[in-house]
Write a structure and sequence with these properties.
Shape: elongated
Number of helices: 4
Oligomer: single chain
Length: about 120
């Protein structure tokens, strides 16, 4: 039982750390782009183009994964169903890829009109 709790805590810490690193790197990216582009039409175009993928990330990573996937995954691990937990993780990863890749490609194709 203690081993399962440690696994759940480690998994939660890993997800939380990855999310924090992602946001920190995004902040660094904004600083670098701000230094490079300054305040002008190029930076405005970049910020406008970034809104769609950033919103998708926040909805998927912050909303869906945080409120649905993590408790379900942790619950399966806590019940000792490690194989089921990893099948769930695989299924969610595949689903996200099949949805987000086409949405990203669509956003790229529609970028001139979205900006």
């Amino acid at each position: 039982m203690e081993t399962t709790r440690r696994q759940v805590a480690r998994a939660a810490l890993l997800v939380m750390s990855a999310f924090a690193v992602s946001r920190a790197l995004g902040f660094v990216r904004q600083i670098v782009f701000g230094l490079y582009f300054g305040t002008g039409p190029e930076m405005d175009a970049y910020v406008a183009a970034l809104r769609v993928p950033d919103a998708l990330f926040l909805v998927v990573a912050g909303g869906a994964l945080g409120s649905a996937f993590i408790p379900t995954f942790s619950g399966r691990l806590a019940q000792g169903d490690e194989a089921g937990a990893w099948r769930l993780a695989s299924a969610i990863s595949n689903l996200l890829l099949t949805i987000l890749v086409p949405l990203s490609l669509l956003s790229i194709g529609l970028a001139p009109w979205l900006v």
